[in-house]
Write a structure and sequence with these properties.
Helix content is 8%, strand content 41%. It is mainly beta. The structure holds zinc ion (ZN).
């Protein structure tokens, strides 16, 4: 089955900065599951996966515009500490999560005060050209529920 809109795709990947070190990978863990055509993953990765089938292995290079965006100016905002989710105490340089009207965003903490923190809304990988080494594990039809929710359920997807 070929990857196309409305298919649920499971894949493993190695992610590197172009010509650089390994940033993250899924091998040894569950593969990632996403619903094709629903903006679940960066557009450049989705384009690379389009038309592929289970068992395909390939490497794609994705420019910032099709990955995590180009860094925006004035991306630092002050948020109440209680709206910041992070592991342990908030520290400068650490990544935290802030829930926005557009959903959860990963931010980098740039300053910590008593009640507020300054956070940078640029994704840590913004501005970087990325290399994804991908292995397609499985391709299947999405269920009616998944299409309605615009994301994949089950292993590697949303658990609810
Ligand atoms: Zn759902």
């Amino acid at each position: 089955m070929q990857i196309d809109d409305g298919k649920v795709v499971l894949f493993h990947y190695y992610l590197r900065e172009h010509g650089g070190e390994l940033i993250e990978q899924t091998h040894g863990d569950d593969p990632v599951a996403y619903l094709h055509g629903h903006n679940n993953i960066p557009i450049g990765v989705e384009k690379g996966l389009s038309g592929k089938t289970a068992g395909d292995k390939f490497t794609i290079t994705v420019p910032p515009e099709e990955a995590y965006g180009v860094p925006i100016k004035n991306s630092v905002q002050r948020v109440p500490l209680k709206h910041l989710q992070c592991h342990g105490k908030p520290k400068v340089g650490n990544i935290a999560q802030v829930t926005t009207e557009q959903g959860p965003r990963q931010v980098v903490i740039t300053k910590v005060g008593k009640f507020n923190a300054d956070v940078d809304f640029n994704h840590p990988l913004a501005g970087k050209t990325l290399e994804f080494e991908i292995e397609v594990v499985n391709v299947r039809e999405a269920s009616a529920d998944e299409l309605q929710h615009s994301h994949a359920h089950g292993t590697g997807g949303h658990a609810h």
